[in-house]
Amino acid sequence: MPKAYEMIADDIRRSIREGLREPGERLPSESELAAHYGRSVPTVQNALRMLNEEGLIDKRHGSGTFVRRPRTRAVRDNRRHQWEKQRAREPEAERAQTGATEHDTGLELRDLVFYAKYQEIKAPPDLADAFGVPEGTVLLERSYRTRHAAETAPFSLVSSYLVRDVIAANPGLLDDGNEPWPGGTQNQLYTVGIEVDRVEERFTARPPTPEEAEELELPPGTSVILLRKTSYDIHDHVVDVTHVTLPGDRTELSFTTSLERW
């Protein structure tokens, strides 16, 4: 038999999902809810704690408890890489109309706020091994954050690495002031004569660090999905390594595999 706090949570959850409580709406106080359901305040607190962990409500210190506004979902489809490659050689006017985030979310460019920061680092052992270069080789580390203009948390935390000497022939690739770059990394590599042949993606999941939970505004108990993306050129050289931290509450991974005919 369901416990009293579970029944209260079920009733509030139903009212949210059926639209009886609007996003951003303030819930009655804990004492008011206790009176309404004929239960104790601690029982109501347990129900609200459950709904908070599900990401349905936000408890704001000194303000009350509110129905959480649904955040824009992102669907990451493995076919996006071919889509990006097809755009890599298009005219800039065509490339500038949309990008990977718009592809994943269905938003338009004007809906997004974009941030990029570049810095040069010395390759640590794992990245040196991935690129097949000596440890300490200069890499360009690129950090990206993109969010919906109506929200405060980014869709993901992205760190991308390129070997500096490989891209230095185009000085524009070293300047984060040129971001967002129309056509993304595949076009950037194309400008220095590199064609991406394949992309390998490895996914794992774990609880977030406190810093990740804060920046991604994760509900309690939400995991993050870790993506390590490695891009190879047509000569089988690694040309880009990207680490992406994705929020588990708003990210869907979609994989389509075409099978050869018998």
General description of the model:
With 262 residues, the protein is an alpha+beta fold. The chain folds into two domains: 4-67, Orthogonal Bundle (Arc Repressor Mutant, subunit A), CATH 1.10.10.10; 74-254, 3-Layer(aba) Sandwich (Chorismate lyase). 30% of the residues lie in helices and 29% in strands. It has ten helices and ten strands. It has helices at residues 4-17, 30-37, 41-53, 80-87, 92-95, 100-105, 125-131, 164-167, 184-190, 210-216, and strands at residues 57-60, 64-67, 74-77, 112-122, 138-148, 157-163, 196-206, 224-233, 238-247, 251-254. The strands form three sheets. Strands 4-5-6-9-8-7 form a six-stranded antiparallel beta sheet. A two-stranded antiparallel ribbon has the order 1-2. Helix 1 (4-17) crosses helix 3 and helix 2 packs across helix 3. The protein is elongated, with a radius of gyration of 23 Å. The mean pLDDT is 94.
Q: Quick gist of this model?
A:
With 262 residues, the chain is of the alpha+beta class. It has ten helices and ten strands.
- The domain tally reads 2
Number of strands: 10
| Biggest sheet descriptor | 6 strands, antiparallel
Query: Could you name the CATH homologous superfamily of the largest domain?
Result: Chorismate lyase-like
Report strand order across the widest sheet.
4-5-6-9-8-7
**Global outline:** elongated
Top CATH class of the largest domain? Alpha Beta
What percent of residues adopt helix (DSSP H or I)?
25-40%
Task: Tell me the number of helical segments per DSSP (H or I, 4 or more residues long).
Answer: 10
Radius of gyration: 23 Å
CATH architecture field of the largest domain = 3-Layer(aba) Sandwich
CATH fold annotation of the largest domain: Chorismate lyase
Question: What is the terminal-to-terminal distance?
Answer: 53 Å
| pLDDT < 50 runs, ≥5 residues | none
Q: What is the typical, i.e. mean, pLDDT?
A: 94
Order of helices and strands: HHHEEEHHHEHEEHHEHEEE
